[in-house]
Design goal:
The chain has 380 residues and is α/β, with parallel strands linked by helices. It folds into two domains: 107 residues, Aspartate Aminotransferase, domain 1 (Alpha-Beta Complex), CATH 3.90.1150.10; 243 residues, Aspartate Aminotransferase, domain 2 (3-Layer(aba) Sandwich), CATH 3.40.640. 39% of the residues lie in helices and 14% in strands. It has a seven-stranded mixed beta sheet with strand order 2-10-9-8-5-3-4, sandwiched between helices. Strands 11-14-13 form a three-stranded antiparallel beta sheet, covered by helices on one side. The protein has a two-stranded parallel ribbon with strand order 1-12. Helix 4 links the parallel strand 3 and strand 4. Helix 10 runs parallel beside helix 12. The longest helix is centred in the last third of the chain and has 21 residues. It starts with 22 loop residues before the first strand and ends with a helix.
Amino acid sequence: MIPYPIRNQFRHTIGQLDMPPRLLLGPGPSNAHPRVLQALGMRQVGHLDPAFIKLMNEVQDLLRYAWQTENKLTIPVSGTGSAAMEATLANLVEPGDVVLVGVNGFFGLRLVDMAGRYGADMRQIEKPWGEVFELDELKTAVAQHRPTILALVHAETSTGACQPLDGVGDLCREHDCLLLVDTVTSLGGVPLLLDEWQVDAAYSGSQKCLSCPPGISPFTLGPRAVEKLSRRKTKVANWYLDMSLVGQYWGSERTYHHTAPINMNYALREALRLVAEEGLAARWQRHRETAVYFWQGLAELGLDCHVAEPYRLPSLTTVRVPDGVDPKAVTGRLLSEYNIEIANGLGQLAGKVWRVGLMGFNSRKENAALLLAALREVLA
C-alpha cells in the first residue's frame, strides 16, 4: 500500500487528440510542410550522438545558405523566435550601451523593451506603422545618437512593411556600430543577403516562411558581433542564451550546455532542406507571384492594402478593414465556416487591418484564391 492518499480530482479521462484542419493564413504559425511533420516524428537519438552532431552541421550550413552568410556562429536557438530575439540582445547589449531602434511597428517596440531590460541606454526613432525608414533618416539618427547597436525590423509582422537595408551596413561601419536585424517574417520568403548588406546580427523564427512548427529559432552573429561578445566586461545576463556557452556546444568543442530539442532540429533540418531544394531565387519568386496574385484579387473585391507596394512584404499583407465592417466578426466567420485563420491588427493597427500570411508551404495561388473567395462571401 502507498502510505499517503492520492487526489484524483484532476485525473480526467480524455479523448485522443484531434485538431481541426485549419488553413493557417495569419501572421504565423503557417502550416508546416508534410515532410517537416514527418521528420518531426522520427525516433530520437541523444543530443551528443554522432548522428545528431552530423545533423547539427547540416542545419548550420543550410541556415548559412538561407541567410546568405558565412558567419561561423550560425545556429538554431532552443526556443521560439522571441528567444532568438532575446539571445541577440542579451549577448550584444551591456549596461550603458546606446541602442537605437527604428520603431515602425509592434516588434520594434519589443526590441526596445528587451534591450532596456539588459541595461541599454535606449534611443528610438519612429515612423507611422506601415511606413519604412529612408537611409537619410537613419544617417541623421545614427549621427545624432552615436549608438553601439542600430536595430531594425526587416519584415515587420505587425504592419506588412519590408525595411530596405541597402547602405545601412556601410552607415553602421562608418559610425562603428553594429547592425542588428529582425528577419522573422522574411527568412526563406523574401530576398535577404546578410553578408552583402553587412548585417552583424540577425534572428528569425521557424514557423513563418520556413513552414516548420514554432519552437526553434535561427540566430547568427557576424565577426564584429562575435568580437563584441568576446570583450564583454560583464557576463551575459541570461545563462540559457549565453552564446559564449551555447556556442561551445554548436562549435567544434561540442561541450554540453543544455539538452537540445532533438525532434525540433529534425524538423528544422527538413524545412531548410526544402529551401535548398527549391533554391532561394525560385522561392523568393514564388512568394512574390503569390502575393501579387492576392493583391490583385483584393483590388477586385474593393479592398486596399495598408502598405505602399514598393515596401510591401510578399510574405505578409495588411488589408485595410472597410468602414462599417467588424474585423473580428470577419475573422471569426472565416475560422468557423471556412477553417481559414487570418489575424486582426496589433497595437496602432488594431481594428484597422487584417493580417494575411502567404508564407512558405502556404504561399500558393490556390490558397490565395480560396481566401479571396471566402472573403467575397463573408463581406457580402
